[in-house]
Amino acid sequence: MARSTRRIVLAAPARGLPTAETFRLESADLPDTLAPGQVLTRTIYCSADPGTRARLSDGPSYAPPLRAGDTIDGFCVGEVIESANEKFAPGEVVALGGGWAEHVLFPGRGYIQKIPHRRVPLSYWIGVLGVPGMTAWFGLKRVAAIKPGDRVLVTSAAGPVGATAGQIAKASGATRVVGVASGADKAAWLREAGFDDVVDYKAVSDLGAALRAASPDGHDILFDNVGNAMIDAVLPLMRMGGRVVVSGQTADYNTPYDQAPALHNTRYFIASRLRMEGLVVFDDLRAFPAAQEELCGMIEAGAVKVREHKYQGLKVAPGAFIDLFQGSAFGRRIIQVGEEPR
Predict the structure, then answer these.
(1) Environment class of residue 197 by beta-carbon count within 10 Å: exposed (0-12), middle (13-18) or buried (19+)?
(2) Which long-range contacts (CB under 8 A, 24 or more apart) does 186-193 make?
(3) Cα torsion for 184, 159, 128, 192, to the nearest 10°?
């Protein structure tokens, strides 16, 4: 009898905000035997990532668009149940790019790493110790070249990337760390996590004035997860030699490419000698283990706090994803698909 699994696939390209009809739950066959290099894992956790939105319809992106019938991508923690790869053995727990599925067939190339210890919850390896945390780490350390005394502004600060970035900035000696988020609950949690101030962008009539008041001396680093309109509002507030890290574009993901806001305040790049750079964190893949170990130590010491929002069962993954763009809950969206190994 053929082996099978369940997975969630793209039913139709999204137009604007994805809906339940964008996705479909279906069964898929698994191979009877593995080809050399392949690894078969049982999914324990998978993630809902805002960056996936860029792949649900045509348009420029860091990765090609998904086609109807493709498994929705995402990161997973899984237990190896079969291996034709000498680097991995049954029973080992790994983090990998596998998507929304009960089982993942790793083809032999791509993102996969053994989880080296259980000192922190397994789900952290696709959150604060996974791509979101590494994006924050290398966005600040490599792209922004953060140094003691910097003044840092983080947008979408209550998300897993933003919250981690703000805390890393504080631990790196930033003089002032300001977050942009919405709602009193998010603001309270960010202050608990060490942010010096939080601007509720939905509660102010003049965002630029609110950001100026939150950091009167300006900002050395903008770590942006929102998009062009936010960057444009902050450019006049950047200090001489400021750095803009383009990490994500949550406000623009559901906007057609030709309707996304433009940048108008580009004169400040010249006047203030600014630099703007984006990142794809897999450029830093070889440096992940050292960064993860250091960040794990910061978590254990209480210097970095983590917030997750968990869902149960593969079938709720589309709802967890849609909730990223319209829900009030915050924290890393984690879907528990299977039981943790003992």
Answers:
(1) middle
(2) 186/157, 186/158, 186/330, 189/158, 189/307, 189/330, 190/157, 190/158, 190/163, 190/166, 192/305, 193/163, 193/166, 193/167, 193/304, 193/305
(3) -20
Tell me, yes or no, whether 24 and 114 share the same domain: yes
Domain ends where: 281, 296, 324?
281
Q: Confirm whether 290 is domain-assigned.
A: no
Q: Write the pLDDT tens digit of every residue in 44-91.
A: 999 999 889 889 987 666 678 999 999 999 999 999 999 999 999 999
Q: Is the dihedral of CA 98, 117, 321, 226 positive or negative?
A: negative
- Clarify whether residues 318 and 242 are in a common domain: no
Question: Do 75 and 130 touch, CB atoms closer than 8 A?
Answer: yes
List the CATH number of the domain containing 22. Answer: 3.90.180.10
In which domain, by residue range, is 251 found?
131-281
Residue found under tokens 């010491």: 301
Please check whether residues 268 and 140 belong to one and the same domain. yes
Mean of pLDDT values over 123-128:
98
Longest CA–CA separation in the chain, Å: 69
Average pLDDT over residues 219-226: 97
Question: Are 168 and 193 a contacting pair, CB within 8 Å?
Answer: no
In this structure, which amino acid lies at residue 53?
Answer: R
Contact predicate 41/79, CB 8 Å: yes
List beta partners, residue 82.
40
Backbone CA torsion sign across 324, 329, 333, 335: negative
Name 105's bridge partners.
40
The DSSP H or E segment spanning 56 is: none
